[in-house]
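Hey,

The postdoc asked me to send both predictions to you directly instead of through the lab channel. I've kept everything plain text so nothing gets mangled by the mail client. Protein one:
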Amino acid sequence: MHADPRRAIPQTDSLLADPRLAEPQRRLGRPRVRDAVHDAQERARAGALPVAELINHVLRGLPPRATTLRPVINATGTVLHTNLGRAPLSSAARAAMLAAAGYVDLEYDVASGRRASRGRGTLDALRRALPDAGDVMIVNNGAAALLLAVTVLSAGREVVWSRGELVEIGDGFRLPDLVACTGASLREVGTTNRTTRADYAAAISARTGCVLKVHTSNFRMTGFTSSVPIGELAGLGPPLVVDVGSGLLASDPLLPDEPDISGALRSGADVVTASGDKLLGGPQAGLIAGRADLIATFRRHPLARALRVDKLTLAALEATLGGPPSPTTAALHADPDALRTRAAAIATRLGDEADVVSSAGEVGAGSGPGVALAGWAVSIPERYAAALRSGDPAVVGRLSGGRCLLDLRCVAPADDDALVEAVRACR
């Protein structure tokens, strides 16, 4: 009688006790490794895997990390690439998130042993960054900031808003739909291409909850157009809410047409909303700045609890506000000559298939529309693109004229070696 080959397959617990699987179990958890072991055992029973290869098969099939999110080297030249997670965090922000991952004094005063206000350090940092604000508040993203402001000021009332600013942004998201879900009625004024202060003034009534002005992001009109600046809307009576979108704290000569929070406040806006993961270079968050009495009202609204941020976001945002320049700032203001030097060095290491070409980057995420960022890229054959995207880390470049361009604007110099090795691995 022949021995049952299944008896030669070690038991699950025996395989899990193998020292080679100790580190994966610490990294990924025992249940995930156990599932991989079960899969290997089934293959062995089916005769598709030698018993001696069980552990090696398990090790090959296990992912390098517990999340399915894969690190990406952004070689597209787009600084704020929404599909790649927008702003990369600074080393200070990453360290702050790691420090906040365990127990922290989020709502606790260690001196008195009593409860304390949530996020007080981050709020203080934002107040210092925006001295023109009466007070500030932080919610979980830019849309949430606008949602809270309009809900508190205009639920059951009217929002006066220019037709030229009723925009749709990424993924089919329409700002008028956001306003409608607050319970407010939209009172459109002006025409698509021209709106005047008189249009706003004529629409204001006892039913007006607020006047809303929204930065139109990467939607632009040219020709016979006009809009009303913030300063001319500030004296109309109802609270003026301005959504500047990109989270620029103060004006930047590189982006002359991009509105900033400080400028909007100085021009007379009562409430300004913005995103934290765009030009600020921080984590996803919604920033609200403005009159202290209005911010206090926002904080007391039940919706504020549903939109509040977690401890990791608070930690990363505080470190971004008070720490070194963010990777976003560095990428936006990268020296073209330095980019060219790096590109030439990488191309030399890659050999005859690589060239150095000029490359115009962009800000991205609806910020700085039309602003071309002069830079340089390493040009390699287009056939490399798919394989580079499949690597770990993945490398995402830009296809142009039958070539794959690896723009170095958003690639940290410390990642140049990894970029070279990723290309070589595709050969």
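Protein two:
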Amino acid sequence: MIIKLLGPLWALWLMFLFLWILKKKHVRISIKHPIIWLLVITILVRIIPAFILQPGSNYDIDSFRLVADNVRDLKDIYTVVDTGNRHPYLPLQMYWIGFSGWFADKTGLGFNSIVRLAPIIADCLIVLLLYKVFLKKQIMDPIIGGLLYALNPVAVYVSAYHGQFDSIPLLFLLVSLFYAGTSAYKSGFWLGLGIWIKSWPVIGLPIIINSFRGCKKKIQFGLAMVIFPLVGVIIYLLVFQADFFTTIGKALGYNHGIGVWGYTYLLKILANSLFPKVNIWEVFGFSRFVTIGILGLVWFFYARKQSPFSGVLTLLLTFFVFTHAFSIQYLVWLIPFGILIGDLKWIKWYTMAAFAYMFLVYHTLILEMTITNIMPWPLADTLLIIPASIPVWLVTIFWLTDRWQIYKFNKEDKK
């Protein structure tokens, strides 16, 4: 019972630590071996919940366990009944999942904790990346910059509590952006690696490819981005005797989380009241094209004229505002970009709103189903869980609007 209480308390403590560090953003810190200290802190605040406070399973961890078993048995995870709808990604992270299952069985260590190590390591590398950037930029103390991600409860929730892998493609997207405009092959390689883990880093594609001048560089970037995921898929097809279109289709056809975020929730409530016989899911199924269209317009008129990191942050915010589908682990995407760009005011409000939402969802639904003690399901989902996301969605709207105002101001100032 005490351990169960310590899980939420640990998250609350991290939230207070993060806000305290944020207040110190203008302070300069001088310590020996800062990289070692940053790594120790980053690992410690994640390992304790992952291995001690919240080592239990959830739907995604259960999915990983099934995937691990099928990978070890060389079964096609995209067509086997128990994992056919549980792994909507290209075949790369499943090898770590399979290794985690094997290692856990051999050592007796808990699979639920072992599988979380990959995103935790990615978090450590993101912290080091932020530290290195601020050593050069001097926008803020590099230790403070690293700690803003290391202690950010949103990032800790996703990797250590949930065990989701989003910090890995996030890391690869960030590295790809560092090579944007300078090395087409390196930038393309890292972006392709990110897409190979999860497909969402493709949001950065139009910004990064636009950073290269000339068709030759753009072609080099495109080839480097495509070749490794393609070779990886081919190897998977040969080893697991799988079908190409089924494997690719699972990643391209992913459309989960409709009606749980933003305007889709409001439309769902309205439609259920006015048109109870209409299948709202079929309507929202086509909304992905609306999202893609809006992203394209924002890129053309606005984001492509910004620096690569700033432009990607703009597109990610646009996605958050207008997406028809959503999952809670997406909330980590904005954190390192906001820190790098220096939007610390918005990082503060975004983290607080996201934390409030995640605190409710993780500790009453994802990690342990206790929300039904308050209200029956699915009524609890409609009246408690989903509405808790509205504040953080509104913050993304205001954040995007603020960036648009700054862009217009800078544009007028240059005239």
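Summary for protein two, as requested: The two ends are 64 Å apart (CA to CA).

Thanks,
C.
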